[in-house]
Amino acid sequence: MPNDYQEIKIVQEPPLTWIILNRPEKLNALSLRMLDELSSALEELSTDKSIRVILIKGNPEGRSFSAGMDISAFVNLKPLDALHISKRLQEVINKLEMFPKPVIAVIDGYALGGGFELALGCDFRIASNRAELGLPEIKLGLMPGGGGTQRLPRIVGEAKAKEIIMFGERLKSEDALKIGLVNWVVPPEKLDEEARKVAQKLAEAPPIAIMTVKNVIRLTRHGLLEEGQMFEATSFASLFATKDAAEGVSAFLNKRKPSFIGE
After folding, report:
1. From 7, 37, 132, 137, the catalytic residue
2. Residue 52 domain-assigned?
3. Of 42, 97, 186, 226, which sits with the fewest C-beta atoms within 10 Å of its C-beta?
């Protein structure tokens, strides 16, 4: 991995990799440079076979996962420039959602606006019990621009998404847990430890099957049930050509723990 990143940090703990949002003086707010660095890091990590799971967190000195896009960049912003920012944020979060390996958002402190949308693009969200999540753009006379109006209703339902977006209020992590917005809530001092445990479990799973599950769920969520089931069936069948499937069946029959290699 390149060592010239300035607004993110990469910490590798094979089979895990941490991506740390690194603008603590700005509550780890997103910038166009940070988005470019995230995009570059995701491209490189996607082909690294030694890495099975990605965890994303904010620099703890910033007291936030990410407080959103850097609002200072919004002063006198022209609509065409705003469109560029919105599209770039969407592109990076799309890349996160389509990443071939599991991605976990590890949320402490604030996850607001674009930072919250970044977390929505992850497969799992684990939060500390002091975390606060929300889309407060409406209070600036604006609206979410990083996919929030699209992903949030698919996670919590349309009525709850409208409530969160139109009122712009922050959600406590325990309330986010109740509506399925986060998967787990833990004390702050145990956040990294618990996130690592979740990641290690995912890292022991068969990588090709994990990637296939992600693709099937993502690509069929808007189609007809029959179309989704056909795609599921053909994807299920394709996995029988992998060494991991043979290993899984053999391990089960021989009552031993499988060792998946991603082939």
Report:
1. 137
2. yes
3. 226
Residue 128 φ then ψ, to 5°? -80, 160
The reply to whether 192 and 234 lie within a common domain is no
pLDDT one-digit tens code per residue, 40-78 = 999 999 999 999 999 999 999 999 999 999 888 778 889
Q: Is 73 exposed, middle or buried (0-12, 13-18, 19+ CB in 10 A)?
A: middle
Q: Map residue 53 onto helix, strand or coil.
A: strand
Looking at the structure, do residues 243 and 144 belong to the same domain, yes or no? no
Measured CA to CA, the distance from residue 30 to residue 125 in angstroms comes to 18
Query: CB 15: neighbour CB atoms within 10 A?
Result: 18
> What's at 9, amino acid-wise?
K
8 Å CB contact between 159 and 167: no
Catalytic residue among 7, 37, 117, 132: 117
Cis upstream peptide for 15 (omega within 30°) = yes
Report yes or no: 243 and 260 within 8 Å, Cβ to Cβ.
Answer: no
Kindly report whether the global pTM for this prediction surpasses the value 0.90: yes
d(CA 29, CA 170): 17
Rounded Cα gap, residues 101 and 211, in angstroms: 6
Considering the domain architecture, whether residues 231 and 178 belong to the same structural domain is answered as no
Compute and round to an integer the Cα radius of gyration of the chain.
Answer: 19
Q: How many domains, in total, are found in the chain?
A: 2
